[in-house]
Fold this sequence. Notes:
Elements: E1 4-13, E2 23-29, E3 49-51, H1 53-63, E4 69-73, H2 83-91, E5 95-100, E6 114-119, H3 131-143, E7 146-152, H4 155-167, E8 174-178, H5 185-194, E9 202-204, H6 208-212
Parallel strand pairs: 2-4, 4-5, 5-6, 6-7, 7-8, 8-9
Antiparallel strand pairs: 1-2, 1-3
Catalytic activity: 6-carboxy-5,6,7,8-tetrahydropterin + H(+) = 7-carboxy-7-carbaguanine + NH4(+)
Subunit structure: Homodimer.
Binding site for substrate: 13-15, 28, 73
Amino acid sequence: MSNLLISEIFFSLNGEGLEMGKPTIFVRLSGCNLDCSWCDTKYADHNTTEKNIDEILEEIEKCNNGINSVLITGGEPLTQDIEPLVDALHRKQYDISIETNGSVYKDVLLKTDFISVDIKTPSSNNETNDLVVFMKIANAIRKRNGQMKAVIADRRDYDFLNKFIQENSFNVPLIIQPCWGKLSYKELCEMYLNNPINHNNVRVLLQIHKLGEIK
Length: 215
C-alpha cells in the first residue's frame, strides 16, 4: 500500500466556499506543482512526514469526535497517489472533500464527494490556461458535487475571471473571495455589483478561518 507525504492532520472548521463553517478533519499533503505568490500554506512543502494509509487513518480517528467529514488538501493532493487513502476513507464511511489547484486531473476525483477547484488569477503568477484539464475537473464536479473558487487581489484578477467565465461554459457553482491582505470584502463586493459576472450560481464570500484566526 502506497505511502503519502503528509504535512499535517488536524480538526478545524472549513473556512471557504459552500462548505464554510463545516466541522472537518483536514489531511494536508506536502508538495505542489505550482508556486502561487499569495499561497498561505507554503510551509506544507517543508513540514513533511511519510506515512502509510494505516498511520494516516489512525491520526484521523484521533481527531474524530463524531465528525465524518475529511478534506484532502495541500499543497496539491493530486500530485500523489491518493486513491488508496480515498478508498480506505470510504470503507470507514467518511464523507470526502478535496481541494485542487486545477492543473492536474485524475479519475480519483470521481470517487470523492465534494471537489473544490481553483481558477488561478493573474496575481497568483500561475493563471489557469489549461482548459482541457480544467474542463475535466468541472465535469467531475457536475457528476459528483463541488465548486470553482477564485481569489481576487485586484481589478486585473476580477477582469480575468469575468472573461474566463464568459468564454467558457461551466455549470458549476462559482465562489469569489478577496485575497487576504490585498483586497477588502467591501472592494470585492463593489467590483461585483458594478460589473456582475454572468454566471447563474455565484457566491461572493470571505475566508472565515482568517477572520476567526483558526487553522
